[in-house]
Amino acid sequence: MAIPDKNKKSRKKLSTSHAAFYIVTLLAGIVVCIVLFIVTYQTMSENNPVTTGTVRPTNSPVISTLRDLDDAMGVIVKTDAAAGAVTLMDLESGRETSYILLDTTEMTSRWGTLMSFAEFERGLIVEIKFEKSTMELISLSVSAQAWEHQFIRNVTVNTESGTLSFGNNTYRYTNSTIVLYNGQPYGIGLIGPLDTLSIVGFRDTAWRVTLESSFGYIQVNNCDLVINGTLAAGSSVFKTLVEAEPIPMAEGLHKIIIEGNNINPYIADVFVRQGETSHINLADVEYRLAALYVAVNEPGSAVVIDGVAQSGSGPYMVEFGDRTVRVEAPGFIPAEQKINVQKPRVDLSFNLQPEEKSGFMTINTRPAGAEIYFNNTFMGYSPLTRFVVYGNFNVIARMPGYTDTQINVDVNENANIFLMILVQDTGDGFGPLPPPDDGLEPLD
Description:
- By secondary structure, the chain is mainly beta.
- It folds into five domains: 67-142, CATH 2.40.50.320; 147-213, CATH 2.40.50.320; 215-281, Immunoglobulin-like, CATH 2.60.40; 290-354, Carboxypeptidase-like, regulatory domain (Immunoglobulin-like, Sandwich), CATH 2.60.40.1120; 358-424, Carboxypeptidase-like, regulatory domain (Immunoglobulin-like, Sandwich).
- The longest helix has 42 residues, at 6-47.
- The chain starts with 5 loop residues before the first helix and ends in a 20-residue tail after the last strand.
- The model is unreliable at 45-66 and 435-444 (pLDDT under 50).
């Protein structure tokens, strides 16, 4: 009769106990893991951390549990972070509706990156998914269908047609278009070509116009004495100075440099405010040269300053101190003035007198030796040649025993040689005798 092996039974009982222990431990571990997973998931859902650059899964279990969902596309009219609400204007109906923001609302950019609620500004075009019964937002995202033009200038606003034009683009705007400047409402009719704008819209309509920067004016006073004055502001603005004409300038701080032919550069920092005029007074600017204005009665006259011929009609830049100014013109007597220049502007006037043209006049007589008178002034005896001013002369030839002979002649640039034939006076009442034959031939 066989005897039972007690040691073998003992070993089998021990093995069964170990297996039970392992199973219980494994089950306990699984339970712990499940609990930790549930706690962790709930914590993450409650905190809902938003990290830019992180895309949340689109198959969120929160969304999958909701029913009766709807979607819409609209423009953000108002946001209320304290109340957790956002108001949209539907692009199709134009109706405004408020929606409730949840801790679990998924907020993304047009590229799918997460955004904070504070980044959703008025005028943004967004697409939403919401629970129709509660108006609670499931998702809020910037619409990828919207277009945007950033930091553009030279925008023309036509208030009659209700359009915005720049480059080859023309968009309409409506009474619902949101226009902002520094976050505050702004009149679209106040927009000028120098304003810098960012425009957001959908299809052919601009729904948000943001005035990024506007402009004011710079007025330069007392610049009438500056010759060829220019104003530069950085590398983008270059204007010619004209008294009483404000210069449009983008708002902000500008380093202004004013230069001219007769001044030392004037440099100033000027802050331009939107819609306002900043003034620059050049009353105390330092002049290094004076402007000499010369007025002459004869156009085209030559101006010579200190022996140096000047070009053009002026004004002429001269140093301060003693100067000699001479004016010349063909056919006129030159004129000269000496001046002492002490002011930034000097005005001189000249009245040139015509030169007297002159030439030779010769008087021959038959017989020779007659007294010759020009305009009743004795000039000498014939034959006579004198240098005279061009003009009309009364010439008388007088000789004892002869009747006075008188002629009127015009002296000019032509040959001026005249023959006067004297007639002998008989004194018997029968008239003069014929002239003696002296061998002279009449001149042509």
